[in-house]
Specification:
single chain; 165 residues; alpha+beta; seven-stranded mixed beta sheet; 31% strand
Length: 165
């Protein structure tokens, strides 16, 4: 029975080492995901949008992958932060709330003026999310915290001043 007991002890050590490895990997993935969502706004070069004297620090996205992800991995959005989507040319660019966890306002902008606002847009509750399209072509979209468009009385035609984009 001596060899058998040594085999069980070896197996216990291997399983314990494997469990520790799994915990380290899981912790690393959780930390990576945490930092991805929490530090999303610390990687920009002081990009800013100002509408009616209300300024928002921005994360600017312009690649298809960044646009696809958008704010979907974000679990909270500070009042003075936003995401700006830059398009190569004006068009009827469509947005939806797939995988979103928080409600937002979606502001469509062409050149430097607001063309359409969707306020208090909630994450989808079913399998077919609503598609949001502007009334007119837009070349930028600003996503901000839900309800701020109404709170700050943003309207179609309001000027949007962008800095460090």
């Amino acid at each position: 029975g001596c060899k058998f007991d040594q085999g069980i002890e070896s197996m216990k050590k291997i399983l314990a080492a494997f469990a520790v490895l799994l915990i380290v990997i899981a912790g690393g993935l959780l930390a990576q995901n945490y930092f991805k969502t929490q530090n999303i706004f610390q990687i920009q070069k002081n990009s800013k949008a100002t509408i009616n004297n209300n300024a928002f620090q921005l994360i600017v996205v312009n690649t298809p992958k960044e646009m696809e992800i958008g704010l979907s991995e974000t679990t909270s959005l500070p009042q003075d932060k936003g995401m700006l989507f830059l398009f190569k040319s004006p068009g009827y660019h469509s947005f939806w709330m797939k995988n979103m966890k928080i409600p937002i306002d979606i502001i469509f902008i062409n050149k430097d003026k607001i063309v359409t606002i969707f306020s208090k847009v909630n994450p989808p509750s079913n399998e077919s999310p609503t598609i949001y399209r502007p009334d007119e072509p837009s070349d930028k979209v600003l996503e901000i915290n839900s309800g701020l468009s109404e709170k700050y009385d943003f309207k179609k035609g309001d000027k949007v001043v962008l800095e460090n984009i």
